[in-house]
Structure formats: C-alpha cells, structure tokens
Request: fold
Amino acid sequence: MSMIADSHLSLQDPQFLATLRTVADKARAVLPETVHSRIERAITIVLSGGVTLTEHGAVVRSQSQPDAGYSVNGSCPCPDAAEVSGGWCKHRVAAALCKRTIEALALATPPVDDLPPVEDATPAGLDRRFLTYLHGRPFVRYAGLLALAHERGLMQLEARIEFHSDSLVLASATATFSDGRVFTEWSDATPANVGAQVRPHWVRMALTRAKARALRDALNITVCCLEELGEDA
Reply:
C-alpha cells in the first residue's frame, strides 16, 4: 500500500511536479473536453497527498468529505462518475495521474552511458574498497554508502514497497540523521532491469536502490550506486 502523502520528495520535488504536468497534458489530449476541468481538480488531489495506490487500484480522498475516500479500480463509485463521459471523475483521473507520474519517474533513471563524467573518482570519505569501475566510471556499492552514513550520524533508514505488480515494483526510502536532517528517495525494479544473480530477489532490489539513493542525497555523493544499475550495465 502506498500513501503518497508520506513522501515529501514526491510532492515537493520539481521533477515530480513537472512530470505530473506532462502526464496531465497527455490526459487532456486523449480524454473528452468534458473531463478537462476535472483534470485540474485531480492534480490538486494528487498534490495534497489524497491518492493511496494499492495492489488493486487506489483509494482517493474525497475533497468535500476529507475523512472519506473512494476505492478506484477501473471505475469510481462517486456520484459524478455516473454523469461524466467514460466515468472519468476527478477521483479516477487523480488515481491515473498519480500512478503514471510515479511510473514515469521510476523509469527515468539514465543508462550508464548517459551518466555525466565524474571529476572526483573517490568521493570524500568513501573507502576505495567500496568502489567498482565499469566502462571507466566509478560506482559505489551500497555497503560503502551505509558505512559512511553511520559515521556521519545515520539514526534510522526505513524503506517500503509503494507499488507492486507482476512486472514493476516501486519503493521509497527515508534516511534520518542525528542532526535532524531527513532524506527521502524513490526507486523501481523490474525482472528485466536487475542482474541475473539477483533476479529471484528483484522485488527487494527496489528497496535497496531507494535506500542507496536516499543515502547518496544525504552524503552528497554523485557517484551512482552499483545496485542501481541494470543487467546491461
């Protein structure tokens, strides 16, 4: 189950906002004009944290009754759904926008060849034993990030599955430090974008990747984590 409101990154990050707007523009291009006014209201619902993605669809918070919600899975039981073309009420639109935005962000990780050059092959504080070189570029192993984070005051590292299907898993991770800093990141995993050796555990790779990204943000390390790469790296 996924409470979108729990992820500060998903709601505040400029990339999330830009991606959401892009997805919304695509929705306007394919949905009837009678639905267009509901798209803006759906965006408001998403940005307020009113969408909870589940394995069976989504639960979308009611704007008129904040304590109530609608279970959306291909259709919505709200009164407006029966009136609007195709059943595209604001709740169903919000669920679709949220899901497609998160999927687009998860698939936006650049391939190895597109990564920018790294000026410092050994980031400050990282032990060279935790670096691996591929195609002439350095990559840090998750164990090295974790060791350095503990040295710099890591108090808690939490990760959880936000969305799960047969072909895609989305996960979020939050790292909390002793000085009060909190870093949240998201990542994905599919059976096709993990190495053959860890493919039986591909679901857990989404958790490891999210934790690695959160730690890299916290430690200001631009070197990509080895566990974030796919099988073709």
About this structure: The chain has a mean pLDDT of 81.
